[in-house]
Structure formats: structure tokens, C-alpha cells
Amino acid sequence: MRPQKINEPDKRRIAAQQKPSAGGPVRQCAVTRERLPQSALIRFVRSPDGLAVPDVAGKLPGRGLWITANRETVEKGLQADVFSRGFKAPTKAMPALCDEIEKQLVQRCIGLIGMGKKGGQAVLGFDQVRAYIRKQEPGWLLEASDGAKDGRNKVHFLAKAIYEEAKVAGALSSAELGMAFGREHVIHALLEHGPLAEAFGVAYQRLTGFRLAPETEWFADRR
Predict the structure, then answer these.
(1) Which residues contact 86 (CB under 8 A, 6 or more apart)?
(2) Could you tell me whether strands 41-46 and 51-54 are parallel, antiparallel, or unpaired per DSSP bridges?
(3) What proportion of the chain, given as a percentage, has pLDDT over 90?
(4) 109 & 192 share domain
(5) Which residues of 117-145 are buried (b: 16+ CB within 10 A; e: fewer)?
(6) Domain shared by 58 and 108, yes or no
(7) Is 1 contained in some domain?
(8) Side-by-side strand order, sheet with 168-169
């Protein structure tokens, strides 16, 4: 099933709170011409065969072209042939470009959670997550998009009752969270505060430009 284009502006309150810091490198979006933190954009490079390729990690060689990290803006750029203009040469987008960007961003999020697991900075399991919350504030609560409402509500509102604010990432499925932890499925998990959680927040904010962030609706009636 094709993801929604982008969360509606009035439904992106959580993502807005996660907006990357303006203190890093700034780049200009090739579509909107707006200057934004590099962490709020997607980098593209032109392959030798003339294809525009997304470079989510920002490590591919060659001249880069930057577009705001949301599906709507990338699709607008495709319609305007922004890659040919930006690279000053005929350039086609690779097939299913936005879906490929989403895929890379999901892998980035999974990889960061996996690093947290290996470094002892991640907790998984309903009881374990709730026990952690009672002792200290989590960096990110990770709730599977296909998890049960009752369970995620108990986790979220426990954290919010103690700490007032609770960052929740709900766009990853239980299978995707499972990949990060080396299991078939994971429903409830968290990342501890720290640089890794901050890096995850940047990656997740970009992901919500290409995939619906369900947490914007999950707790709307309890705010």
C-alpha cells in the first residue's frame, strides 16, 4: 500500500517539535529555494548513467542537489524537471524515487535503533519500557504502527504523567522494529537520551515527510 504523500500541516505538531537544529550546515532546497538545515533535506547525486539517486547518508561522491525532506516537494521537483536544471545535464529520476527515499530513511532509523541495542542504550518490551520510564525519562518511545492501542496508551501516558512531554515515534511497523532488535516483531521499545537518540530524531523527522506519523493522531483526544 502506497504511503500518504505527507502529513497535513495541522497534523504535524510532533514532527515540528522534532525539527533539526539550525546550528548545522545550511543548504538551499532546489525546489522551494528555501535555505534549511542540511539535516532537514535529502541530498541527491547524478549517477554516471544520468539518474538522480537519493543519498540519505550524504556520503556518495559527486556534486549534490538538495530537496526538502518531504514527498510533496520531491514530487513537485520531478514535475518541474528540477534534476536536469540542477545538474545542468539531462537527468531522470530513478524509478519510484520517493519510495526509495522512504526505504533508505527506514533503514537509517532501523540502523540507529540497532546501534542503541548494541550499545546498551535501548530497551524493549512492555514491562521493561514501563519500568525504565518510572526511573528516568526516555529519549524516544518507539511504538509499532501496528501495535494495540491499549498498550501504547499505557506506555505513553505513564511517561507523560511523569515527564509532561514524551517523544513518540510510531511510523515503524512491528516487523521493522523487530529488524532493529534482531527479532521477528517488537511492539514497545525506547531509546535512552543521548547523541544517538538525537540522531534518530533527525532521521525520524525526515521519514515523516514520506510516511504518515500515526502518533500525531493516536493521542490527539488525550492532550
Answers:
(1) 30, 65
(2) antiparallel
(3) 82
(4) yes
(5) beeebbbbebeebbebbeeebbbbbbbbb
(6) no
(7) no
(8) 122-124, 188-191, 140-143, 168-169
* Domains identified in the chain, total number: 2
pLDDT confidence bin for 113, thresholds 50/70/90: very high
Query: Which CATH number fits the domain that encloses residue 129?
Result: 3.30.1330.30
Q: Amino acid identity of 172?
A: L
In Å, what is the CA distance from 152 to each residue of 46, 52, 193, 223? 42, 39, 20, 15
Q: Say yes or no to pLDDT of 210 above 50.
A: yes
Select from 118, 120, 162, 116 the least CA-distant residue to 140.
Answer: 116
Q: What is the pLDDT of residues 73-111, one digit of tens each?
A: 999 999 999 999 999 999 999 889 999 999 999 999 999
How many angstroms separate the CA atoms of 54 and 159, rounded? 36
Other C-beta atoms closer than 10 Å to the C-beta of 38 total 16
Domain hosting 165: range is: 100-222
Cβ contacts of 127 within 8 Å, gap of 6 or more: none
Q: Are 98 and 67 a contacting pair, CB within 8 Å?
A: no
The Cα 64–Cα 87 span in angstroms is 8
